[in-house]
Write a structure and sequence with these properties.
The complex is a heterodimer of chains A (416) and B (365). By secondary structure, chain A is an alpha+beta fold. In chain A, 41% of the residues lie in helices and 18% in strands. Chain A contains 12 helices and 13 strands. Chain A has a 5-stranded antiparallel sheet with strand order 1-4-5-3-2, with helices on one face. A 3-stranded antiparallel sheet of chain A has the order 6-8-9. In chain A, β2 and β3 form a beta hairpin. The longest helix of chain A has 24 residues. Chain A is globular, with a radius of gyration of 24 Å. Chain B has 365 residues and is of the alpha+beta class. A 6-stranded mixed sheet of chain B has the order 6-7-8-3-9-10, with helices on both faces. In chain B, α2 packs across α3 and α2 packs parallel to α4. Chain B is globular, with a radius of gyration of 25 Å. The chains are: A alpha+beta (416), B alpha+beta (365). At the A-B interface, α4 of A face α1, α2 and α4 of B.
């Protein structure tokens, strides 16, 4: 049988990979380094044309389906890994058929939760990961994606100004619907709760969980965070006609949560004394879109929030209140942001992304100022940060996650 | 443990005109293993999810025991989706892997321990309880995963294509394990698959769906021996039943030049032609040119037996597959008397094992 490659932009170098060999037996020299983790399937990370790719061995129909699903998620602008190709029609040299491979791009600066736990962690990391996962799950659900296998293992995390942003990695059990029923959303949440508890208990059993808190209690946070966010984003509100400012207030609250309101339904009741308002279409990325418009910087939501705050401080501090916002942003970019990020030595660039470094420098400056009891110029804080903090951090540009030991236990349910 | 009842249960997806599941009626007995089977898009998974509370029910009702669960949330139904997404955690013992979900549900420690021990006994895992999953074989790991569902002791187990991801060998092994385990536990189980072999080997009863409509719900034996229509006849059995359109003659039908008697009353309901169904093992190959002439195209030797694949010499004769496609005529023959490729053989059904269907409606006569 001939090898078949499905890809939107196929890279001929793909043909050089040893497709006739079972993934488990691929030679070490083509693999990227591998921390171990858990997965149902064999997964390996390879270098190809300067990229790192994740290769997962699964049945052809499932591979094709997941590839399409991931493409659709990307089209919907939902945070997920980027599908690269499906290679099917594989067979060994003696003609034995092999499963297909789904190939996705490694997400730069992303961290599997297990890799995070092997570092020395700040307190409350589990909580921050769960918060990020709750945001991801709400966003997926708002767009009709029914995940079916929500877990920390099936998610990658990127640093986001001290917090995390979550990305979907495994869409194998997922389905895209026009709308999800409450039962379907609850099912995902229930699975999330059980999986997170299991994952944290496993870390605890392995001596990796440094926190004292009970995994079961921590796992319950996915429920509360999810419901808070879902209700804030979708809940209907009844206001008096005389309180129309509350419409604006609602929009501001959603903005503060990082969401834009693209469509808000407003209806009055029969006698016209009250207005029913309900957000219909909300879109994540309120701050990151604003920063992108002002500066061209494409960063994550909390990073954008942080950078926008610094931009505001810059505007006030330099007495440019009356100036056009775009002009101020341009000045901030060339006078503050870029000098900081460009000063980072090349050999330390793989530690953190520029926006995260900027965030850390701001934090560092605050600590220094507090200690010194006076303001510290940012470049001075940067010099100290580069000398004393950054070199001690692990390289996170290509932490390739979870290699696997196959546990052939289960198969996902499929749509018929 | 409980009975399950689909009572005219209907699901129409928003924007669709036709229901994905149309007035489904099935009574599942306490402890029964029921398999929902059918081709892609038949509504089997949707039906299972309606029972799980994951799809809205737009018409009719669903009962678990004497509780109407139609509008109940998934959590409150006391059903367990088995194998859906079970990972085994490497640092946790087998016992913890089996019991941790109970901890979340607030079950107390001694109760968890006793349920885990009980499940381990059933699963032959008692001696492994304090080990890590790494030390287990593939089959043992699967049993641990089953244990996770068992300790919850739900009223009903639900399984949606749990084996679709496994390779052929492991699929057969796991199939047997699940079936025998279910019998030992006696928990009512609803199992979805597209694979009729899986359905036949596992289910106490099989419910075959097509286009959202239940075609037949019966034991594997009855589905095999008395399919109610051409679709069921073509779907159940491997290799599939031969379905040949033949003319009706006085007192019977004509299979090639071979006259087969058919009950007059039954024939009264038919038109000028009927579809005759015959399973490969019920095909008689004659030596005196009596029957339908078949040109042999392929012979598959199985030792004691052989399968002969061919097409009717008379090209105007249609063979149906029950779902509108065309397929070869298949006969099982004695392995010591195998025809040659290209040879013409004459075949007809054995009189006791033939099936006659209305040509227009497909219904069994």
């Amino acid at each position: 049988m001939a090898l078949q490659i499905t890809a939107s932009r196929p890279d001929p170098a793909l043909l050089d990979l040893p497709w006739r060999t079972p993934l488990e037996e691929w030679p070490d020299e083509i693999l990227a380094a591998l921390p171990r983790g858990i997965s149902r399937h064999v997964v390996r990370f390879v270098h190809l044309s300067g990229r790192v790719l994740a290769v997962k061995e699964i049945k052809t129909d499932i591979a094709q389906r997941e590839y399409e699903l991931l493409r659709n998620l990307r089209r919907l602008d939902l945070p997920s890994v980027e599908p690269f190709a499906v290679v099917s029609g594989r067979e060994t040299r003696d003609g034995m058929p092999l499963d297909a491979c789904l190939i996705t791009r490694h997400l730069p600066f992303s961290l599997p939760y297990r890799a995070l736990y092997s570092q020395n962690l700040r307190k409350g990391t589990a909580v921050r990961l769960i918060d990020a996962l709750a945001v991801l799950l709400v966003r997926l659900h708002l767009n009709g994606f029914w995940w079916g296998d929500v877990s920390l293992s099936n998610t990658l995390f990127r640093r986001d100004a001290g917090a995390f942003a979550a990305y979907l990695v495994d869409a194998e059990t997922g389905e895209l619907r026009a709308r999800l029923s409450d039962g379907q959303r609850e099912h995902d949440l229930d699975i999330a709760r059980v999986n997170i508890a299991g994952e944290l208990m496993d870390l605890e059993a392995g001596g990796l969980l440094q926190e004292e808190r009970d995994p079961v209690a921590v796992s319950a946070r996915i429920l509360t965070r999810y419901h808070e966010l879902w209700d804030a984003l979708t809940g209907a509100e009844l206001i008096e006609v005389g309180e129309r400012w509350r419409v604006d207030d609602r929009i501001r609250r959603l903005n503060a949560l990082g969401f834009d309101v693209d469509e808000l339904a407003m209806t009055t009741d029969v006698d016209g004394t009250r207005i029913h308002i309900e957000p219909k279409v909300v879109d994540a990325g309120h701050h990151s879109r604003r920063l992108l418009r002002l500066t061209g910087l494409d960063v994550r939501e909390n990073q954008a929030r942080r950078l926008l705050n610094d931009l505001d401080a810059f505007r006030i501090g330099t007495g440019r209140n009356e100036q056009d916002e775009e002009q101020v942003a341009h000045a901030w970019l060339t006078e503050v942001y870029e000098p900081v990020t460009r000063t980072v030595p090349r050999e330390l660039m793989g530690k953190l992304e520029p926006a995260e470094i900027f965030h850390e420098v701001l934090e560092h400056r605050w600590y220094l100022a507090e200690r010194a009891q006076h303001d510290i110029p940012i470049m001075e804080a940067l010099t100290d940060y580069i000398a004393s903090v950054l070199p001690g951090k692990p390289d996170e540009a290509t932490v390739v996650g979870t290699d696997t030991r196959e546990l052939p236990v289960i198969a996902p349910g499929r749509i018929d | 443990m409980a009975t399950v009842k689909f009572d005219n249960a209907t699901r129409i997806y928003p924007g669709n005109d036709t229901p994905s599941v149309d007035k489904l009626n099935i009574d599942i007995q306490d402890g029964e293993f029921l398999v929902l089977v059918g081709p892609s898009g038949c509504g089997k998974s949707t039906s299972l999810r309606m029972l799980a509370g994951l799809e809205e029910v737009n018409g009719g009702k669903i009962w678990i025991g004497d509780r109407d669960v139609t509008d109940m949330s998934p959590k409150d139904r006391d059903v367990a989706m088995v194998f859906q997404n079970y990972a085994l955690y490497p640092h946790m013992t087998v016992a913890d892997n089996m019991g941790f979900a109970l901890k979340i549900a607030g079950v107390d420690k001694s109760e968890i321990r006793s349920r885990v021990e009980e499940a381990a006994k059933i699963l032959d895992l008692t001696q492994y309880l304090e080990r890590k999953p790494k030390a287990l074989s593939g089959g043992q790991r699967q049993r641990v995963a089953m244990g996770r569902a068992i300790v919850r002791s739900p009223q009903v187990f639900l399984m949606d294509e749990p084996l679709s991801n496994l390779d052929a060998k492991l699929r057969v092994q796991t199939r047997t394990q699940i079936a025998s385990l279910q019998r030992r536990l006696g928990v009512t189980t609803v199992y979805v698959t597209h694979d009729q072999v899986e359905a036949m080997t596992m289910g106490d009863r099989i419910a075959l769906l097509k286009d959202g409509i239940l075609q037949q719900c019966a034991s594997p034996r009855e589905m095999y021996d008395k399919p109610v229509n051409v679709f069921v006849a073509g779907f159940i059995g491997s290799p599939a039943m031969n379905l040949v359109t033949v003319p009706v003659v006085d007192g019977g039908v004509k299979f090639g030049n071979h006259a087969l008697p058919v009950d007059r009353e039954a024939l009264a309901k038919a038109g000028k032609t009927v579809i005759v169904g015959v399973r490969p093992e019920d095909v008689e190959v004659t030596s005196n040119q009596d029957g339908l002439a078949i040109t042999v195209e392929l012979v598959e030797e199985l030792g004691a037996d052989a399968y002969v694949y061919g097409t009717p010499a008379d090209k105007s004769i249609e063979l149906e597959s029950g779902d509108g496609g065309i397929k070869p005529f298949i006969a099982r023959v004695d392995g010591r008397q195998v025809p040659m490729k290209g040879e013409t053989i004459y075949v007809h059904p054995s009189a006791d094992h033939m099936h006659v269907f209305n040509k227009e409606t497909g219904v069994r006569l």
